[in-house]
Structures are given as structure tokens and as C-alpha cells.
Write a structure and sequence with these properties.
Blueprint: H1 2-19, E1 45-48, E2 54-58, E3 61-64, E4 71-72, E5 86-89, E6 102-106, E7 109-114, E8 117-118, E9 124-125, H2 126-129, E10 139-143, E11 152-157, E12 160-165, E13 170-175, E14 184-188, E15 191-196, E16 199-203, E17 216-217, E18 246-249, E19 255-259, E20 262-266, E21 273-277, H3 278-281, E22 291-295, E23 298-303, E24 306-311, E25 317-318, E26 324-325, H4 326-330, E27 338-340, E28 347-352, E29 355-360, E30 367-373, E31 381-385, E32 388-393, E33 396-400, H5 403-408, E34 416-417, H6 420-423
Antiparallel strand pairs: 1-2, 2-3, 3-4, 5-6, 6-7, 7-8, 7-9, 10-11, 11-12, 12-13, 14-15, 15-16, 16-17, 18-19, 19-20, 20-21, 22-23, 23-24, 24-25, 24-26, 27-28, 28-29, 29-30, 31-32, 32-33, 33-34
Length: 427
């Protein structure tokens, strides 16, 4: 009996040793078994939540955001007891009861969470919520109308992509053999990224087309890792250092801020501020921007005496025949310091030194309707929202309720400090 017990004891100790290799080199360290995404990990799923925090899933752990350590996934999704196959955040603004919910997939089941609380009646069979979508998925990602033909979800399994129309609840299947096998897919700032191994490949969501030099290492772009630089990353801009060349907001509420050869984009405060080279979105502008304004689903970018007009959409497209000179397009000449158009209006307000010019954009050729002095100069940028106009000088700004009050003012008001609530900078 003693020999049998000894043999059993040794076998048990050997099994325990083999089952916990991560603890060998750091006995007693509670964090030693945590997966390290900077070591190069193939994620199971990636999705933002309703607050804009991005979650990276691997096994029974999850990372919240682009930096920090792994944590048990049950800390945020308590009903989970292991890995997930796929995940996405629903984009369905026509149905607020579903919009911004997180869907997690495991085998043949789907879980729906909102504010990290499991919705009543879940988990369900995938077919109940998404008829025609296969089980045991590899990845999933939302695709809003304008980026896809309709508001859709792309479900990935092997080389096949199942495009699910969330309104008609129908599925069309495509095969993209040229795309790597995606273990997770992430939509970020209207671009789509297939993650495979510790790399990613950016693709077009309707055709699957890949353009550019891919794959790229995810550790350089989607997480903060020692010894890895960063591409278009979440930018920490101190409000005290705020000084922009130009600012505008478009019809969807996105804010674009230009500085030197880069621009920063703020979709919503939940999704954060992100910086990119200007040429990434407006390839013809290789030397920065002096002023910018948005009008009628178009963005007007001014550099020197040239005006570039781009049609807005999932991607910006230069209107044929542009750039044109300031004189040709706006009937003005000289250096432009700032510009803005107020929501629902068709007047461009062009600031040059201590002068503001009103230009009727509905008239062809453009018609100047007013020239007026300003109470101060050295203006960097300006933009107009429904609550009024903000005129920027470095990290200070002046607020006016309307263009008319700006024009009628003879003394500059008390300057205010740029805040995080305004432009997404860090107080």
C-alpha cells in the first residue's frame, strides 16, 4: 500500500507541476499567471462597450483599454466562465433598446450586455437573435450604414464572411480568401482591422480589399508596450498645451483639429481623441492647414491661397476640379487665419487678421455680404455650434452667442481656458 500511495503522490505532484508552468519562475507572485498582451497574443475578441472603453478578450481574461494588466473577464461580464468566440457593439440607432449593446458569442450561444449587465432572457441560441448566422464563430464586427450598404454586422467563420442586415434580418455570405484568418475584428474610427496572431490587417468592409503595407504589429498601434512605438494612437493632449491651426465640426458632430502635419479627431468623448497624419484622410494636403470649415456634407480646407473641397463620407473624396484659388472659390484674397459655418446656415465666416468676412455659399459666384472689424487679432482657429462661437488664441478662447454679437463687439471679452469638456484634452 505504501508504494502505491507514494507512486500516486508523485504522479499527482508531477501533474500539478505540468498544469502550472507560469508559476515556476515566480512562486508566490499572484500576477505571474496573467497573460501579457505585450508578449504577443492572438485575441479571441475585441469590442468597445457603451462607454467607449475597448475590451480585448483572451481565454478567461480581458484587458480594458489600450494599457494596463489583464483581469478576469467575469469582473466585467460576470456570467462568463471562460473564453468567448466573438464580440461586437451593436450599431442600431433606430432601435435604442438595442443600440450600443455588447454581444458576446460562445459556441452556439449569444449574450447581450448593456452597462455590463446581462439582458433578461440571455444567453440565447444565436439563431434566435441572428437567424442564418453560423455557430462557433471566429469574429464579428458592426458595420454602420454608409460604411456598409445598410446597418449590418459582419460575422467571420473561416474564409467566409456572413453579412447580417439588422433591419431585414437576412444574411449574405461572401468569401474573402485573401484576408488572413481573423480571430477578432475591430472597427475603430470607421476603419476595420482583422487581428491574426499579434498582427492586424486593415480591410474594406464591403469588398474585403486590403490596401497598404500589411500585416502590422498590433503592439505598435492598439496597446502601449515597452520598446514598441505607436501609430495612430489615443492622444493625451494637455489642455494647457492646446494650440491648433484650424478646427471644425461636421454634420455628424465629429470634431477635427489640425496642427502642423497632423490632425486629431474627436467622435465622441467616450471614444477619445486620436491623432493621425493629415495625408491619411486628405492625401493632397501635404503641408498642413491654415483654416477649415464644414458645409453641406463637405469639408473646405484652406492652405495658402488654395481651397480644397472634399465630400464627406466613410472616406473623404476630393471634388473634381479642386483645389481652386481663394479668389476663384470664395472671392477673397490674402492669408486666412480661421473660418467657420454655423449649423443650418449657408454663410462662411472668414477671419483674416482683425477682420471678418461673411460669404454667401449658396451664391454662384460667391457673394461677400459683410466685411467687419474684430476687437482682437492673432486668432488661431474658430468653430461654431448651436450654443455659439468659440474663437481660439492658444489655450484660451472667447465665446460669443452668435456671429452678430461677435461683429458688434468692440472690446474683447474675458478669455476662458480650454477644457476637456470642449475638445477632449486632458485638464
Amino acid at each position: 500500500m505504501a508504494l502505491t500511495f507514494k507512486a500516486a503522490f508523485l504522479a499527482l505532484m508531477l501533474a500539478l507541476t505540468r498544469a502550472a508552468p507560469l508559476e515556476d519562475s515566480a512562486a508566490g507572485d499572484g500576477d505571474s499567471a496573467l497573460p501579457d498582451r505585450c508578449a504577443g497574443i492572438e485575441f479571441d475578441a475585441i469590442t468597445p462597450d457603451d462607454k467607449g472603453q475597448t475590451f480585448f478578450f483572451k481565454g478567461d481574461h480581458v484587458w480594458k483599454g489600450f494599457e494596463g494588466d489583464a483581469q478576469p473577464s467575469s469582473q466585467y461580464f460576470k456570467e462568463l466562465n471562460g473564453h468567448v468566440d466573438a464580440a461586437f457593439r451593436m450599431h442600431n440607432p433606430e432601435n435604442q433598446g438595442d443600440h450600443d449593446h455588447i454581444y458576446l458569442f460562445l459556441d452556439d450561444k449569444v449574450f447581450s450586455y448593456f452597462e455590463h449587465t446581462l439582458e433578461e432572457g440571455y444567453p440565447k441560441e444565436i439563431q434566435e437573435d441572428f437567424p442564418g448566422v453560423p455557430t462557433h464563430l471566429d469574429a464579428a464586427v458592426e458595420c454602420p450604414k454608409g460604411e456598409c450598404v445598410t446597418d449590418s454586422v459582419l460575422f467571420f467563420k473561416g474564409p467566409d464572411v456572413h453579412v447580417y442586415d439588422i433591419v431585414t434580418k437576412t444574411v449574405k455570405t461572401k468569401t474573402w480568401p485573401h484576408l488572413p484568418a481573423c480571430t477578432s475584428v475591430f472597427r475603430w474610427l470607421e476603419h476595420y482591422y482583422c487581428f491574426h496572431g499579434h498582427n492586424f490587417t486593415r480591410f474594406q468592409p464591403v469588398t474585403g480589399e486590403v490596401t497598404g503595407n500589411y500585416p502590422k504589429d498590433a503592439r505598435r498601434y492598439f496597446m502601449r508596450c515597452p520598446d514598441f512605438g505607436h501609430g495612430g494612437e489615443r492622444t493625451t493632449l494637455k489642455c494647457s498645451d492646446f494650440k491648433m491651426d484650424a478646427i471644425t465640426t461636421d454634420d455628424t458632430g465629429r470634431m477635427y483639429m489640425f496642427k502642423g502635419s497632423n490632425y486629431m479627431r474627436l467622435d465622441t468623448h467616450r471614444d477619445g481623441l486620436h491623432a493621425f497624419p493629415i495625408t491619411r484622410s486628405w492625401k493632397e494636403l501635404t503641408n498642413g492647414v491654415d483654416a477649415v470649415f464644414s458645409y453641406n456634407d463637405r469639408i473646405y480646407l484652406i492652405k495658402g491661397d488654395q481651397v480644397y473641397i472634399y465630400k464627406a463620407g466613410a472616406h473623404f473624396t476630393l471634388i473634381e476640379g479642386y483645389p481652386k484659388t481663394l479668389k476663384e472659390e470664395l472671392n477673397i484674397e490674402g492669408q486666412v487665419d480661421a473660418a467657420f459655418v454655423c449649423p443650418g446656415q449657408r454663410t462662411a465666416h472668414i477671419i483674416q487678421g482683425r477682420k471678418i468676412t461673411y460669404i454667401n455659399l449658396a451664391a454662384t459666384p460667391r457673394e461677400i455680404t459683410l466685411d467687419a472689424p474684430l476687437p482682437f487679432g492673432d486668432i488661431d482657429a474658430a468653430f461654431c455650434l448651436s450654443d455659439g462661437i468659440k474663437i481660439f488664441q492658444g489655450s484660451n478662447y472667447y465665446h460669443y452667442d452668435s456671429p452678430m454679437l461677435l461683429v458688434m463687439s468692440r472690446i474683447a471679452p474675458i478669455p476662458l481656458k480650454v477644457t476637456s469638456a470642449m475638445v477632449g484634452c486632458e485638464d
